[in-house]
Every structure is written in C-alpha cells, then in structure tokens.
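Is it possible to get an amino acid sequence alongside its tokenized fold?
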Amino acid sequence: MYLLRQEFAFMRLCVSGDQDEIVMGVRLMFNQKVLSWTKRGLAVPTLMLAVSLSQAREPELEAFSVTTHDGTVIEYNVEIARTAAQMRRGLMFRDSMPENQGMLFIYQPDRVATMWMKNTILSLDMLFIDSKGLIVNIAENTTPFSLARISSGEPVRAVVELNAGQVEKHGIQIGDRVNHTAFDQE
C-alpha cells in the first residue's frame, strides 16, 4: 500500500511539478523503488505515464506585445520561464510553436543575458529588452542546435524568443517598445 501511495504521489507531481522536480522523482524511483515496482510490473508503465503527463501540460500564456517604430502593435502570447529549470530548458526539444507565441525570460536583477540554441529544434528571433521595455539588441534567425553564445551586449531585464522571421515580417527594430508587466512602462 505504501508503494501505491508513492506511485500516485509521483504521478501527481508529474502533472503539476516543474522539470527539476520530475527528474528528482524519476531518480528516486530508479534509486529506491525500481526493484519492488519491477516485481509488480509497474516501473516502466509508471515512468511512461509520468513522461506523458509532464509533456501534456499546456503552458500558461500571458499577453505580450511589440509596438514598432511606426506605431504598429504586434500581439503575442508568451510562456514565462519563471524557474531556473524553465530558464535552462527554454524551448529545447520543441518541434513547433504557434506563430503568435513565444517564451519570455525575465531576469532579476537586470544582467547581460547569454543564450544558446543547444537542443533547440526551432530557429528563433530573440529580442533583448531593457527594464523600460525598449529593445536594445536583436538576434534573428538563430541556428538550431548551435552552441554559439548569443549575447544581449548590455544588461537587460528580459529576452523574448519568437519564431524565426517575426522580426523581418513585422519590421521590428532596436528601439521598439514591448508591453508586458515585467517592464517599467512610462
């Protein structure tokens, strides 16, 4: 009965926990419980269920927009990378993303941000944004799987990753303003 309670607790964790918590749960399963779970034929099905539940969660999206130099407003829905684990993982291993979506990395305090494309299948446009919401640097059409460092060049509050081609399609430039609660709007 004790093992059954642990299995259900582990499955609940996979539905609500972040990636680091899930990895810790998998390690616990294999370090302490795999023998008894294997005897009952539960180790592999539990692991498969855990992985599928952790990947099935829909990300919470927040409104984010860019106001270009000519006044055009481009609306996006962004997933926020809140935890260190989410920031490390970013958009790795994702093979698609809707055109109007992205991921926002918010730094406290502001810092020189360095990104890379390790294990990232999608080519991205990256906007580096200061604390006032102004775009201070742009990296367009990044190379999937590249280990090359992509730097903001100066301290920033955030980086947003969008599908490659968004900068060119909408004429987004350095100096354009973004709108989101993470920035000090004037």
Observations:
- The helical segments are 2-16, 19-39, 43-56, 84-89, 166-170.
- The chain has two domains: 2-56, 61-179.
- The first helix runs from residue 2 to 16.
- Residues 61-179 form a domain with the Jelly Rolls fold (CATH 2.60.120.1140).
